[in-house]
């Protein structure tokens, strides 16, 4: 239940209704949008929200759901009910195309059974009567016109008309040539008058050609004569045309009679198309405002995360500005939030956002808030917004407010959402403040939920001392004297009246006099609030800075641990390999020594033989020595340098791969390290040799392999939205790690839904400097070109 009657208008829901209205394809869908009402049944609200969510998923994933035609079948079915009435060709074709849409939609969901259960419920138990299409197809062609062979009689009549027309044409051509030969004809060719083909004859020659004069020119110099020879033939043709019309009517009556038993089914199809158009319009609007389905609760409470006012969001989007998100919660502990702060600081927008999103949700619309937001169901929504003074009802502004307060107090309950803007205004503040406090106390005793905006200090104090009430303020930059539009829960806000007056240049004597009249205690309270806001903001900034530093520190520790683990593993492997090699060398050396000793004994210590054996032993040991590997001879390649080429830093043994070319500078990957080097300090080597040297280097293998396998473009066409986003996240991580400066994401054009989803996601990456459409010749807005920092 809404109170007052203009509650929807005050909260901006009428504009929401009009925006959804524009997305409808039919008048039936538009009628349903006009009839949208606030629902209070949890299961009903959930069903409507789930249907919209599923259709939104279909649109975002660019599923091949063909919805081409929506026509008012009910009106046509009502016409069929009348005995003797018949549908004309155009009306039959509307039924035909509408039913084609119905069957295409049913086939789409049958192929995706249980994927969209809430949408499938729209046509549950709905029969598929293709015989209706078969009846219509026997009479109408693909363009919706009567087939010449719709009946044997019609075919015969049509054939006779064609033959008669040929005969008339042949006769007319002969007479026309004869008249031309006798110079009877005026300028011009054969023409039609009163539906009959005539010859334009000069007035002085009209007695020379027998026939019927149908018309004459404005000057009277030309007359239009139907020759006597074709007059009777044309009369026969006209009779045949009448016969054809009668036969067509007979066919249409027979077809309409055949369709009459299917009236209940046609009405069911009408209902299905109407609901489908309605849900589709809501889903398209949800995409426009980037809406989601929150967690729906049965109890009357709410917790909005990153909520945005949809109308403000659309307005700002046209100006390329962003809306500051709202975070607010109403629950058993914090039932009423009293919002204070400066004028034009966003208090009313905050309150209206809560009210409008609640209205949208209980009307079955998705809301522009984080999907983890929690929103409950309220039985009543009361709003006191704006000035409802009335000359006719003899109501002043304050009287109008009091009338609403009386209704609120009498009818509010724990399941009521109350929204009051500028609570207590409209009368003497000395009396308006206490009156507002009394009303607030009674409403709080009824455990209502609500958002109230005010400038009154007594309401701020009351909220601070009363259980169930919570102060909140709209933050204000008192250095720049500009509102920040951020809701800060937990403390009241200053109105900044004196500061704003000073900023706009109000004279000092006026300001000083105002301070004296306000009183020192009020000035001290306001100054304290300003000081608290400043300290809170400084603390918040310090907290954010500390959090960033902590994240950076944690990332460095993680990277350090990763590098440490990598080196430890390499160290273990190297030691293991060295031990194996040492054991092998020792084993071979022992064999050689034992063999030499055995030979010396065998030669009985002959001096020359012993000398020779010692020389052999020395040569054998030298063979087992571990010698340093020779440095590879680098082959210089003098061709033009390009991305992906291997290069050597002149004067060193460092080998790397070119990642990017920028005029005189090059970005080179030396293993896991990237460096900018002057082009003149590099010399190009062959790819084969570069890869071979790099593979022999432990630090560069993994990077080089990743670089060679990585492509700077990704194709997500045909993917679902969620899968595409996940793939893009993994792809971007690799691109950033490998140091690429730009990448391409191919998503296709279609309806632009996948493109919009991807680009909105890319805005959240700090590593992305900007993105844009590809050149028109290479794909245009079907490809997003992303530039990395």
Automatic annotation (TrEMBL):
ATP binds at residues 341-348. Residues 522-559 form a coiled coil. The keyword tRNA-binding does not apply. Its EC number is 3.1.-.-, 3.6.4.-. It holds the Pfam family MutS_V. The keyword ATP-binding applies. Keywords: ATP-binding, Coiled coil, DNA-binding, Endonuclease, Hydrolase, Nuclease, Nucleotide-binding, RNA-binding, rRNA-binding. One of its GO terms (molecular function) is endonuclease activity. Residues 714-789 form the Smr domain. InterPro entries: DNA_mismatch_repair_MutS_C (IPR000432), DNA_mismatch_repair_MutS_core (IPR007696), DNA_mismatch_repair_MutS_sf (IPR036187), MutS (IPR045076), MutS2 (IPR005747), P-loop_NTPase (IPR027417), Smr_dom (IPR002625), Smr_dom_sf (IPR036063). Acts as a ribosome collision sensor, splitting the ribosome into its 2 subunits. Detects stalled/collided 70S ribosomes which it binds and splits by an ATP-hydrolysis driven conformational change. Acts upstream of the ribosome quality control system (RQC), a ribosome-associated complex that mediates the extraction of incompletely synthesized nascent chains from stalled ribosomes and their subsequent degradation. Probably generates substrates for RQC. PANTHER family: OS10G0509000 PROTEIN, OS10G0509000 PROTEIN-RELATED. HAMAP family: MutS2. Homodimer. Binds to stalled ribosomes, contacting rRNA. Belongs to the DNA mismatch repair MutS family. MutS2 subfamily. This is Endonuclease MutS2.
């Amino acid at each position: 239940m809404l109170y007052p009657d203009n509650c929807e208008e005050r909260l901006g829901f009428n504009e929401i209704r009009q925006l959804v209205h524009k997305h409808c394809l039919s008048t039936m869908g538009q009628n349903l949008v006009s009839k949208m009402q606030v629902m209070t049944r949890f299961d009903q609200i959930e069903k409507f929200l789930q249907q919209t969510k599923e259709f939104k998923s279909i649109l975002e994933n660019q599923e091949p759901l063909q919805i081409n035609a929506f026509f008012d079948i009910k009106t046509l079915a009502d016409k069929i009910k009348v005995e003797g009435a018949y549908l004309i060709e155009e009306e039959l074709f509307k039924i035909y195309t509408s039913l084609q849409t119905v069957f295409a939609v049913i086939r789409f969901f049958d192929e995706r059974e249980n994927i969209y259960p809430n949408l499938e419920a729209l046509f549950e138990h709905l029969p598929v009567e293709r015989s209706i299409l078969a009846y219509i197809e026997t009479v109408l062609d693909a363009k919706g016109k009567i087939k010449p062979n719709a009946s044997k009689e019609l075919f015969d009549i049509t054939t006779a008309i064609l033959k008669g027309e040929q005969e008339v044409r042949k006769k007319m051509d002969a007479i026309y040539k004869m008249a031309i030969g006798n110079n009877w004809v005026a300028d011009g060719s054969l023409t039609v008058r009163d539906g009959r083909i005539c010859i334009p004859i000069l007035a002085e020659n009209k007695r020379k050609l027998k026939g019927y004069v149908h018309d004459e020119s404005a000057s009277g110099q030309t007359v239009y004569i139907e020759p006597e020879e074709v007059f009777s033939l044309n009369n026969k043709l006209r009779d045949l045309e009448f016969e054809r019309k009668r036969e067509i009517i007979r066919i249409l009556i027979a077809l309409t009679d055949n369709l009459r038993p299917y009236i209940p089914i046609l009405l069911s199809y009408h209902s299905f198309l109407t609901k489908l158009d309605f849900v589709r319009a809501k889903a398209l609007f949800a995409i426009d405002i980037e809406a989601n389905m929150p967690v729906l609760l049965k109890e009357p409470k709410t917790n909005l995360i990153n909520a945005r006012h949809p109308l403000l969001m659309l307005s700002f989007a046209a100006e390329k500005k962003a809306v500051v998100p709202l975070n607010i919660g109403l629950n058993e502990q914090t039932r009423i939030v009293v919002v204070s702060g400066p004028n034009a600081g966003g208090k009313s927008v905050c309150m209206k956002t809560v009210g409008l999103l609640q209205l949208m949700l209980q009307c079955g619309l998705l809301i522009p808030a984080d999907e983890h937001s929690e929103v409950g169901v309220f039985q009543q929504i009361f709003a006191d917004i704006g000035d409802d003074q009335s000359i006719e009802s003899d109501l002043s502004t304050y009287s109008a407010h009091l009338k609403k307060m009386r209704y609120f107090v009498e009818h509010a309950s724990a399941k009521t959402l109350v929204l009051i803007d500028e609570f207590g205004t409209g009368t003497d503040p000395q009396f308006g403040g206490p009156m507002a406090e009394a009303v607030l106390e009674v409403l709080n005793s009824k455990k209502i939920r609500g958002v109230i905006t005010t400038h009154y200090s007594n309401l701020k104090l009351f909220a601070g001392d009363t259980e169930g009430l919570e102060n909140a303020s709209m933050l204000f930059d008192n250095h720049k004297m500009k509102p920040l539009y951020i809701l800060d829960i937990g403390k009241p806000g200053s109105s900044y009246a004196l500061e704003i007056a000073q900023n706009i240049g109000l004279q000092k004597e006026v300001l000083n006099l105002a301070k004296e009249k306000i009183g020192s205690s009020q000035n001290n309270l306001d100054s304290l609030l300003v000081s608290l806001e400043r300290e809170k903001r400084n603390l918040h900034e310090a907290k954010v800075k500390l959090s960033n530093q902590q994240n950076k520190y944690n990332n460095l520790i993680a990277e350090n641990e990763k590098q440490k683990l990598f080196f430890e593993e390499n160290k273990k492997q190297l030691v293991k390999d060295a031990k194996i090699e040492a054991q092998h060398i020792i084993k071979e050396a022992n064999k050689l020594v034992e063999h030499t000793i055995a030979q010396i004994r065998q030669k009985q210590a002959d001096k020359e033989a012993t000398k020779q054996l010692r020389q052999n032993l020395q040569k054998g040991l030298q063979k087992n020595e571990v010698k340093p590997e020779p440095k590879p001879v680098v082959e210089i390649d003098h061709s033009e340098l390009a991305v992906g080429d291997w290069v050597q830093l002149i004067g060193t043994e460092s080998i790397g791969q070119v990642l990017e070319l920028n005029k005189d500078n090059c970005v080179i990957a030396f293993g896991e390290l990237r460096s900018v080097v002057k082009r003149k300090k590099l010399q190009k080597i062959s790819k084969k040799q570069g890869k071979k040297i790099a593979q022999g280097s432990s630090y560069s293998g993994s990077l080089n392999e990743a670089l060679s396998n990585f492509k700077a473009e990704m194709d997500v066409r045909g993917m679902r939205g969620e899968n595409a986003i996940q793939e893009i996240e993994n792809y971007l991580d690799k691109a950033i790690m490998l140091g690429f400066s730009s990448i391409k994401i191919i998503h296709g054009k279609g309806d632009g839904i996948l493109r919009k989803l991807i680009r909105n996601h890319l805005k959240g990456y700090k590593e992305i400097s900007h993105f844009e459409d590809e050149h028109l010749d290479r794909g245009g807005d079907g490809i997003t070109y992303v530039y990395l920092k």
